[in-house]
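As a representative case, we now present a protein record of this kind.
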Amino acid sequence: MARTSQNVQAGKRKIELSNLRKILFPEDQILKAELIQYYLQIAPTILSHIKGRPLSLVRYPNGITGEAFYQKNRPEWAPNWIEYITLGEEKKDYIIATEEASLVWLANLACIELHQMHSHKPHFDKPDYLVFDLDPPERYPFKKLVEVALELREHIEGFGYHTFVKTTGGKGIHIVVPVEPQSDFHTVFEAAREVATPFVEAHPRDDGPVQEDRDHTEEECRRPQPAQFLVGPVGRHRVADRAQDEVGRHERENERKRQ
């Protein structure tokens, strides 16, 4: 992808890419072309998490050091094969990634962060996971946060749930709990609050990310409501390292071929 722009074939779709030499990660000199290539290569992994979910896009047209903005509405000029669903009181057209071409098209918009809704096609009104969000204060040791997360995991699993850790947020830890999409958002939130409240009350305020006040429990439980989103499995805090690793791998392979 040496040229500034070009047409590419992604699966069964032909996509026009632009500004491929734009530097999105200045510190590592990662180009938009490399971001697109990376998203294409790991498409099966990303899609296994976000396919069928409405997305909120965080775009960085001038790179991660420039101004970013959220985009929830599908652009009017989007190709007709980009799937979407109209949801909410404001009737927003949320994009749904369905194939590798969807990710290529989104990466071309400098969508470095993809935030996913808590629900999945066709049950958009019924979440299929809860999220317990441990968001530490400034300068809180990550090692200590891990200890709290492990304790919270044990507490959650005591209710019969299975848990998974997710670290693609900014600085905290998400504990994700899959559930069957059978109940509405309010019911699922109340279930999460019932689980979180005794844990929160058992920890003093100086425990950092854990609040003792029942009124603040919702700050530790990512409220699964229709308008809320969770950063996807690859956030901007992980893209640079992984993309750089991928670029380095290709450089090493090319070097071996030249030898």
Remarks:
- The chain has seven helices and 16 strands.
